[in-house]
Amino acid sequence: MARILVADDEAGLREFITDSLELDDHTVVAAKDGKEAAKLLDERGFDLVLTDLKMPGLDGMSLLRKVRAEQPEVEVIVMTAHGTVDNAVEAMKLGAFEYLQKPLSGPDELRLLVARAVERRGLRDRVDGVERASDPGLPSGPPLTYGDPAMRPVVEAIEKVARTAATVLLLGESGTGKEVAARAIHAQSPRATKPFMAINCAALSETLLESELFGHEKGAFTGATERKRGRIELADGGTFFLDEVGELKPELQAKLLRVLQERRFERVGGSRTLEVDVRWVAATNRDLRAMIDEGRFREDLYHRLAVFPIKLPPLRERRADILPLARTLLDRIARDLKRSVPRLSASAEKRITGASWRGNVRELANTLERAAILADGDVIDDSHIWLEGGSAKPTAVTVGGAEVRPLAELEKDAILHALEVVGGNRRRASELLGIGERTLYDRLKKYGVD
Predict the structure, then answer these.
(1) How far apart are CA 442 and CA 243, in angstroms?
(2) 110: containing domain
(3) Whole-angstrom Cα distance, residue 309 to residue 439?
(4) How confident is the model over 169-222, as pLDDT tens digits?
(5) Of 89, 109, 124, at which residue does a domain stop?
């Protein structure tokens, strides 16, 4: 996911944007004005900037000019409640990705626009047209390398199937690196110079997901002011990665099945049939066979997707990979924080190699980023590492003589406790917590909990 900087002098809007984008697992940093945003840009790396035009001190147009001059690879979305045609034209001429009018209509519009900006940023990371699937700086995560024998069959299977046009189904727990594997398949395939498109089937509402997949015609629904090509159409000749495919609703399962069978589809609201040549890779952490028995997943679609299944082992079953992965992740974390790469002490190495890592590589990455921030020097020791269920407690801050834990940690503990009380039933846990089931799902993904 992307690293996003939000600059706006309205505290309520900053909070709304942050909450909306964190649902998609983006890392969001908020700045109260242009000067603070400029300072953060100098200190940390970002993939995308969302900035208001009118701010005290340094305005959004000046911030846009700074980004274009110093970090041209970073995408910028400009927001304003004082929009004029002249401002829009000037922002686009300066290289803004999009111009967004306030008040925002809702989180879905914002998340969809950000997803498109992040996608274009990803395309800019190609070298000679080949996706750098092994580059740890990409949002997909660390490279698909291994030292543990448990990963040898996975890497060998990827190398073999990549050369074919077979549809691949990647299976494994959350955070095991399924998107990394999908990108590796694409990079080693004859389609490597063509587009790699990806979509998370759980991240968008059914309506938005259908539009993103298939595109839409002008007037197809409220807000469809122009024709839009879908991601399947844009992936023509390349690879399409369907992450969390088990979250697809029945109607979309039927439409997807037709594309896999006939390589044909229509845009939403359209009548013209389009043909597409796409290599499919899907991924899930669900038991699709059990979902078939429950009537929640189409058996014919399952057999279309599971032509070549590959199961990625959890991190606890490939312990020889933990330290090499940790060092690779620390390199990336150090670049993001613009500091020297911290070293793991012997006690820290022992602690992370002995952990259960229920959230797998995602949880390892989160733990190491937290430890790198807490470490005063260039050495991370076991006191900087907090593990779920371990003896070390999360670092707290002291306010008025009282110890206060970060809100995110309290939320995670509450969710885990609720799930334990109801025996892991997500619907009952969401009712107990007073939140929607999709919100619970988003939070579980955010915290690397399967």
Answers:
(1) 14
(2) 3-124
(3) 30
(4) 999 998 898 999 999 999 999 999 899 999 999 888 888 899 899 998 888 887
(5) 124
